[in-house]
Design a protein that fits this description.
The structure holds two protein chains of two kinds.
Chain A: H1 8-14, E1 19-24, H2 32-42, E2 48-51, H3 63-72, E3 77-82, H4 88-100, E4 105-109, H5 130-142, E5 159-164, H6 171-184, E6 188-193, H7 197-209, E7 217-222, H8 228-236, H9 245-253, H10 259-276, E8 280-285, H11 294-300
Parallel strand pairs in A: 1-2, 1-8, 2-3, 3-4, 4-5, 5-6, 6-7, 7-8
Helix pairs in contact in A: 5-6, 9-10
Chain B: E1 2-6, H1 9-16, E2 21-27, H2 30-33, H3 39-55, E3 61-67, H4 73-76, H5 80-85, E4 88-91, H6 95-104, E5 110-112, E6 114-124, E7 127-132, H7 148-151, E8 168-169, E9 172-176, H8 178-189
Parallel strand pairs in B: 2-3, 2-4, 4-5
Antiparallel strand pairs in B: 1-6, 6-7, 8-9
Classes of the chains: A alpha/beta, B alpha/beta.
The structure holds iron/sulfur cluster (2 copies).
Chain lengths: 310, 222
């Protein structure tokens, strides 16, 4: 792992803090105010803001640019980077560029397939996969070399993240995959939204057994459900999402006008349980389209951003 | 084999409209096996075109011929007289066959009557699946005989994405997740350790990324 932390998120985690991060999607256009609004909602209540890279393959303002806007407001960005749209040449170049602009965290993903997105007629790239990207960023940082072995003038020293889906099948294999991501360079892991706590605990137990939780910081993903429609959509339409019947029933049973409240309550209970799980070092709040609600949740959950020892 | 599908008749009609005398040239190998451009398809298409033009008061003279393979000079030669007699050739071969014909008969317009789809297998009657993109460096040995470069929608080499669910790919519930197939097969083979091995980025130079490819077999050149 990066010896002297240049990343604020890394500092929080290495000092044993319980990190709180949030997700922020850039706008479909060049209006930086949209990002700044989201930044204002999130400022002071999270340790870092994860900025998506053309999420669900919908064309948006670049993650790098949005990260810089947030950084200028004093927030700590995590730049997402998917291998769907850029080959290894463009990926490495953008990582160097992002570092030169002050970005210190990266989250490496393969990315949603473009057939889901706004321009399904596009050609995809997938020159390398997310694990290859992790290894490339690690090599740049630790050996100061690019993928060709060329020595870099100013190696980008990134704090490196990857994603994991504890709910994807088969379970035992996905623990092997987590190990592979750590081996390839992941310092922190952001998980798929947790609704099925039993399954998540089982995955964490397997990860602990393999000694993986000592080698990586796991940030559990949470998304407050806001409506029955959203619950239905998450349960049936979102790839890799596991919303158990118990959660669906609770949402369906909530009185009219109190559905969103119930969603928040479930989210808070989930966070409380996650904090008790050995090896969980933080939560990542993905308040899809509801960034203004994040501070409420952080406050109600009794989470305080910043290093454990202030 | 190369799997292809005949173009819609309306598109073919538009393509051949400027020509009065047309040779429909079938190919007796891959496209014949997948019912896109063999002898039978040539005959059916020829009658359909004659009928269609007649119905609109137009006229077209259609000649039919099917050779064993349109990608080999020895067989292409059999079409020379037919190509010379007609004002255009509509080839029902794969893209390679069409180009081989065009190269050989430099003065005759050669048109494609088939959409070349992929290198695949006949899974069951009427169903063909893509299995190989001809990357030029076969790595099937580590993947239990299932190609993630072709059959994983994201060409992932180090395991499935988070979208794999119930054995199906995130892009379509009808499409098997290649990685589920690979994991299942490696489990049966007792080779789950392959999954722990880091697979480095692929060297795409042997694929189309390295430019058009050519294979030279010195030992066969006479
Ligand atoms: S590894 Fe390459 S040659 Fe082998 S099946 Fe896949 S695409 Fe074809
Ligand atoms: S679901 Fe499976 S086949 Fe589809 S992109 Fe993901 S890993 Fe590849």
């Amino acid at each position: 792992m990066n010896p002297e932390p240049q990343s604020g998120l890394q500092r929080v985690l290495s000092e044993g803090g319980f990190a709180v991060t949030a997700e922020c999607g850039p706008p479909r256009g060049g209006n930086a105010e949209v990002i700044r609004d989201k930044g204002r909602w999130l400022k002071g209540c999270v340790d870092a803001v994860n900025v998506t890279d053309n999420q669900t393959a919908i064309v948006r303002m670049s993650s790098i640019a949005a990260c810089v806007h947030l950084q200028q407001m004093g927030l700590e960005p995590v730049m997402q980077m998917v291998t769907r749209d850029r080959n290894r040449i463009a990926l490495q170049s953008d990582i160097m560029g992002a570092y030169s602009l002050g970005i210190r965290n990266i989250l490496c993903l393969s990315g949603d397939h473009q057939t889901f997105g706004s321009q399904p007629d596009a050609m995809n790239v997938f020159d390398i996969d997310s694990i290859n990207l992790l290894r490339a960023v690690q090599t740049m940082r630790d050996e100061g070399r690019d993928m060709s072995g060329y020595e870099l003038d100013g190696p980008p020293r990134m704090f490196i993240g990857a994603v994991a889906n504890p709910f994807a099948d088969p379970l035992d294999y996905h623990v092997i995959r987590l190990a592979k991501k750590i081996e390839a360079g992941a310092d922190f892991i952001q998980t798929q939204c947790v609704y099925n706590l039993e399954r998540f605990k089982e995955w964490m137990r397997l990860a602990r057994e393999e000694g993986l939780t000592d080698r990586v910081h796991i940030l559990a993903g949470v998304t407050p459900l806001r409506s029955l429609r959203m619950t239905q959509h998450m349960a049936s339409k979102v790839a890799g999402m596991d919303v158990p019947d118990s959660v669906r029933k609770r949402m369906a049973g909530a009185p009219r006008g109190k559905v969103a409240e119930e969603g928040t309550r479930i989210c808070l209970e989930t966070i409380a349980e996650l904090r008790q799980i050995e090896g969980v070092h933080g939560v990542h709040i993905m308040a899809i389209g509801g960034e203004e609600k994040v501070s409420e949740i952080v406050e109600a959950a009794g989470l305080t951003p910043g290093p454990a020892v202030a | 084999m190369i799997v292809g599908e005949q173009k819609p008749i309306a598109e073919i009609k538009r393509m051949v409209a400027p020509y009065k005398k047309l040779l429909i040239l079938g190919c007796g190998t891959c496209v014949s096996t997948c019912f896109a451009g063999g002898k039978d398809e040539v005959a059916t298409l020829a009658s359909a075109l004659r009928l269609a033009f007649r119905a609109e008061g137009g006229e077209i003279e259609v000649e039919e011929l099917t050779v064993e393979r349109q990608c080999e000079n020895e067989f292409i030669q059999e079409a020379a007289a037919g190509a010379a007699r007609n004002s255009a050739v509509l080839s029902l071969a794969c893209g390679a066959g069409v180009q081989a014909i065009a190269r050989r008969f430099g003065r005759t317009p050669v048109l494609p009557g088939v959409n070349t789809s992929f290198i695949g297998v006949l899974e069951r009657q009427g169903v063909f699946t893509e299995e190989c993109i001809g990357c030029g460096n076969c790595e099937l040995a580590v993947f239990g005989g299932i190609c993630p470069i072709t059959r994983c929608s994201k060409k992932l080499l180090n395991g499935p994405c988070g979208g794999s669910q119930g054995g199906k790919c995130e892009i379509d519930p009808e499409t098997d997740c290649a990685w589920q197939l690979i994991i299942d097969r490696l489990r049966v083979l007792g080779q789950m350790d392959n999954l722990r091995t880091y697979i480095p980025p692929k060297d795409w130079r042997s694929s189309i990324s390295g430019g058009p490819r050519k294979l030279v077999r010195e030992d066969l050149i006479v």
